[in-house]
Amino acid sequence: MAAPAPPAPPDARPRTGFWRWALLLGLAALVVRVAVIVLVDPHVPELGDASAYHLLANNLADGRGYIRPFDLLRFGRVVPTAEYPPLFPFVLSLLSRLGARSVQAQRLGLAVVGSATVVLIAYLGRRVAGPAVGVVAGALGAIYPMLFLADATLMSESLFALLVTAALLLAYATADRPSPLRFLLLGLVLGLATLTRAEAVLLGALLVIPLAWRVRDASVWRRVGLAVMVFAVAAVVVVPWTIRNADAFHQFVPVSNNLGTALDGANCRLTYGGTYLGSWRSTFGTTDARGAECFEGFNGSKPGFNEATAAATARDDGLHYARHHLSDTPKVAVTRVLRTFGLFRPGQQTQLEALEGRPLGWERAGTYMYWALALLAVAGLVLLIRSRASVWPLIAAVLTVVASTIVTYGTQRFRITAEPAILVFAATTIVTIGRRLTRGSRPTVARV
Questions:
Q1: Nearest to 267 by CA among 337, 199, 197, 314
Q2: Which pTM does this prediction carry?
Q3: Are 48 and 413 in contact (CB under 8 A)?
Q4: Is 146 part of any domain?
Q5: What is the CA radius of gyration of the chain?
């Protein structure tokens, strides 16, 4: 009896029907997100990032511009802000202009954004390892709490996950057929991602430089020119906001002021040892006899308050502490990464993240599901490497999380850049197991 013919490579298979699977997955993801928002109804803290985004959006819709939302609410003072990158509040403001001014309405709007992310994850999985992996990756994304909790709690990770997945897809498309237009589109998406979360700058560098270098039959200068074009396009997207910040604060603030608060709260006695090692803490002006000052908050009620100046002071305090405790740096850095990847005091970490409005039970469920996916993802990465698949864009997303966590602090929501890659890697293993159980054959993966 003749041996069965090997399956065709994914790129050679008919693709006309995949959009139906993608649409179905998107609809399923939307149902899950709406159900969580309406039935679980995660709490959005009155003082927190989510409430700030909500108030910023409504202020923008009312024509007040980017102003510190709690200063207006508490003190009636109009103070310019760049505490958060601007794109996510702007997107929410579009919903506000359409009448979605409540927290609940804006969360339902983000459910659509999260569902679009699931669709893109399905297409990403298809590109990396074929249609079956794409369907499984999308299905996992539809029910994965670490994705839908960002939508349900009104956090910027919702929009950032969409842009990261789009950037990864564009990176693969550019690797398949390099062209100035594709490099330009990649720069546009990376610029938008940077205006959502600043770690997109690092992701861009890890994606663009290898992509440009691998362009075949191109001179060194052409490769350099393509890379420069991507960064130039991204800069064109970001620079208008930087100019606005220079005008508002009379200082150079490329994207946001939140790096100062992150560094101050991440580099202090409470986070360099003890219970909160590798985490972030705020003391809000209270200290103990041992000098445990972490981030102490901004007092926007002071006359002449300048957010950029306050953030620079906080940044300098954090860096000063880090410089004087260099011997602790390896321990703290490793712990930060382990926290972000759910491997250090996960029980405590889920409780800390529940303070941001995530239901504790769902955060724990998401952590358990992540652990299973992580184990499958490691095996999937090995399978893809052995099959000579192109995995660098996905690895770049994971390395971005590692690097940004080392610089700041550990928290599971910072893993959002790597979540699409984790889902694709895990889906590869699941499909491999399924095929071996049913046909005993190895999966065929896309090659570049």
A1: 314
A2: 0.92
A3: no
A4: yes
A5: 22
